[in-house]
């Protein structure tokens, strides 16, 4: 019975209800919006361009980050272990490299705002005028 209680408590702590809302952000000169399918394709190496045709530069937060977990749950449908396996296969077969990692939400905003075609995701509360919200998944 104690194991069941611990599992229940752990599931509550890890639930999406505890997470804030994540948004997809882009460079201020980029497109005004993007679909969830287009974002998924960028983050799963199926596409390399934004809806306006410019080359995309996706950025990723580190493993274990709550916004990363929420983003991938909502957009790609994969967890950290599945993403690691996916990118290992992509790299091994020469099909691609994972998105460049931004160490924090502040670094994510800085990289996206200074890179034409930059795209990333952060908690909605961290959005400011340096980036443009493209999607609320």
Tell me about this structure.
With 137 residues, the protein is of the alpha/beta class. It has a single domain (21-135), classed as Periplasmic binding protein-like II (D-Maltodextrin-Binding Protein, domain 2). The protein is built from 5 helices and 5 strands, in the order H-E-H-E-H-H-E-H-E-E. A 5-stranded mixed beta sheet has the order 3-2-4-1-5, sandwiched between helices.
Tell me the number of structural domains: 1
The share of residues in helices is: 25-40%
CATH architecture call: 3-Layer(aba) Sandwich
CATH fold category name: D-Maltodextrin-Binding Protein, domain 2
First and last CA, distance: 37 Å
The CATH class label is: Alpha Beta
Number of helices: 5
Shape call: globular
The low-confidence parts are 4-10, 12-18
Strand order of the largest sheet: 3-2-4-1-5
The name of the CATH superfamily reads: Periplasmic binding protein-like II
Quickly give the structural class: alpha/beta
> How much of the residues is beta strand, in percent?
15-25%
User: What is the rounded Rg?
Assistant: 16 Å
Number of strands: 5
